Amino acid sequence: MATVGTGLVLAMPAIAQAERFDVSPGRLGDVAATLGARAGITITVTDPVIAARRSPGVRGARSVSAALAEAIKGTGADFVFYDRKTVRIMARKIIPPKQPKRPVPVRTPIETAEVPGDIIVTASKQGTLLDSFPGSVKLMEFDAGWLARNAGNGSAAIAALLPTMGSTNLGPGRDKLFIRGIADSSFSGQTQATVGQYLGEVRLNYSAPDPDLNLYDMERVEILVGPQGTLYGASALGGIMRFVPNAPATDRIAATASAGLSSTRSGGVGGDGAAMLNIPIAADRIALRIVAFGAREAGYIDDPSRNLRDINTTRSFGQRVTLRIADLSGWTVDIGGVEQNITSRDGQYTIRGDPPLTRATAIAQPFRDHYHLGYVTARRPLGRGEIVTTASVVEHDFTTVFDATGYLGTTSPLKFEETNAIRAYAYETRVSGGGQRSPWVAGVAGIHNVSRLSRSIGVPDALEQIAGVRNRQMEFALFGQASQPITRTLTATAGVRVTLARSAGSLLDKSKNGSKEPSSTALPALPSFAVDWQPSRSFSSFVHFQKGFRAGGLAVAPSGDALDSRKFVADDLSMTELGVRWGRRGEDRLSIRAAIFFADWNHIQADLVDTSGLPYTANVGDGRVYGLDAEITWRLSPALTLTGAAFVNNSKLYAAEADFGTSEEQTLPNVPRNGTRAAATWQKTIAEGVNLSADVSVRYIGQSRLGVGPVLNIPQGRYAVGDLGGRLGFDRFGVSLDIDNIGDVRANSFAFGNPFSVAERDQMTPLRPRTIRLGFDVRF
């Protein structure tokens, strides 16, 4: 029996395996011949008119059926499989007019595409299919309507969808992200991030807070859960979050835009806007894609003592630019850059006992963040595999001001200013291959990260420099990972990364700049092992072990003395998980993903504050985390989908260093013991070319603690918040209305705002009050 495909239909299972293709645009007959040779099948085009039509070619990891569907786009052709090795391309049959319309299946932001077998987890660096990936992965694909409504919220929009992902709430550009309970502290300092963030192949962060990129024009986000030391090295203890932007299109001009106006109860008026322009420069070879965005996030906290309203207003703007050269001697080259600027007028915390949403401080506490990224990525096919090389440079500068009035018993207004200047240079070259049954990857990577932390304190107009520190981390690594079938249903995966890591530091102060400190060198090996069992198309399970680490460094000692320093040593974490997958999301009506896990964390690094309020960094002890991470998707009908997710864990600091021990059992900071989210999404076609969609969600965040030790053992969390939204979509534009925190819940999301008074235990960061946004989006 022949099987017909048009790009929405998956052909027979034997030809659904993912392969890596790089077939340049050209005559459909030529593209088909090249595609058939690469895939080892026979493809015929008997109609000379069809054979002469222009094909966009095929690039990237695809099943054969998906590659054929891409090759025939815009040609007016269909393809038919006569058997597993023979395909014919012919003119598309004329479809009889006006069939009754069926409801369009709902696609929520946390769902994959309609054909799960064709979804490639690109963050695996091996072209692994989603349903056979031997570990926990969260894959979110975005439609244009969802992005238009949520892109301006950055990482917060992702965290709101996933109970397993946590975040502090200092404000945009200042937050730290955590995955599956791997949280070190609430403060930002010299430690490396526990979550590695990437834009395509490019590293975004190393020893800095979340850069909080605007999500506009992103294709999807992939989150690998758990330590990813083998493939990604340091700064991946909790996992990897990989943003995949839409690539420049060489065959068409395209443009999109969105804008929104928002109002926050008891606060001000905000707004956001974004636009994308795709410009082909040389037909089918070179294209430029530009994304620009800006937003004003309304404040909602007042300061009566200074007669100011909405003091925590935040503004951001920036752009992303990518130039793609699609065929440069067989290579596809992307040259890109990112710039983003964030400015907050003041901190977003309040004081218990004061009137709601108010705080009295002597001076303003602004925050400024400037982020710049430049990169080059080149890739080309290599047999059935691919070679990829990437080089990037990041410049990330951010300045924080705190009201230090009362520091060391003073009564006059004091200002504390901290500036962190980070320069990170990264490089990686890797080769992958082996096909879908036995994929492998091997590569070499390096990074050179320099962070310079300078600090000043004094009366607002006459600050004096105090102890600062410069840290330099260098890594050179060799890594590899391979999978091998053991039986028809059982596949084993093993890998290792060997890293030569060197850390060096020096103190900075006005009298002694560049005081040399001994450097340290380490040679950690980061292994990974996994076994995936897939006895049927809709069920699989896996066991996965992985390890990660962070390099050590130098910090200012808790005393704050300009000449006193303290080393903090490297920490490492190993995690074992057992997971199950039942049902294929996007295809089966019911699908379930669940994993139980255990993590052992040694010599935990943490950014802290001393008794006077000055920040410092130290190793606080050893910890353990175990728990359950689960999600379920139920399609009640083509129009209605219910989703639920939960994260339940127990953490313990079981071997605390002397300065952080207490008589009571301590949990790790910022990790709620439980979190859940339930959501419903509905969509209906109400007229020709007119769709109406709506979504509602409720999420619960359990109780956690601000930090370790008796001073920071402050409770936070324990609240539920609901969101509601809808969109009326037409052929080329849409109108949306969203209500966040619909119940106007006044809870403490985060028990910290100013390190100089946090020991008084009366600070809290309230949830943003009910906010209504009216949005518009258009495409050209």
Features:
5-stranded mixed beta sheet, 22-stranded antiparallel β-barrel, mainly beta
SSE blueprint:
Layout: E1 3-5, E2 19-23, E3 26-27, H1 28-39, E4 42-45, H2 48-51, E5 54-55, E6 58-62, H3 64-71, E7 77-83, E8 86-91, E9 120-121, E10 128-129, E11 137-141, H4 144-150, H5 155-159, E12 165-167, E13 177-179, E14 195-199, E15 202-203, E16 218-225, H6 229-232, E17 239-245, E18 254-264, E19 269-282, E20 286-297, E21 314-328, E22 331-344, E23 350-351, E24 367-382, E25 385-403, E26 415-433, E27 440-459, E28 462-485, E29 490-508, E30 515-516, E31 520-522, E32 525-536, E33 539-550, E34 553-556, E35 565-568, E36 571-582, E37 590-602, E38 605-609, E39 615-619, E40 623-635, E41 640-653, E42 674-687, E43 690-705, E44 715-729, E45 733-740, E46 748-750, E47 763-766, E48 771-779
Parallel strand pairs: 4-8, 14-17
Antiparallel strand pairs: 1-7, 2-6, 3-5, 7-8, 9-10, 11-16, 12-13, 14-15, 16-17, 18-19, 18-48, 19-20, 20-21, 21-22, 22-24, 23-47, 24-25, 25-26, 26-27, 27-28, 28-29, 29-30, 29-31, 29-32, 32-33, 33-36, 34-35, 36-37, 37-40, 38-39, 40-41, 41-42, 42-43, 43-44, 44-45, 45-48, 46-47
Helix pairs in contact: 1-3
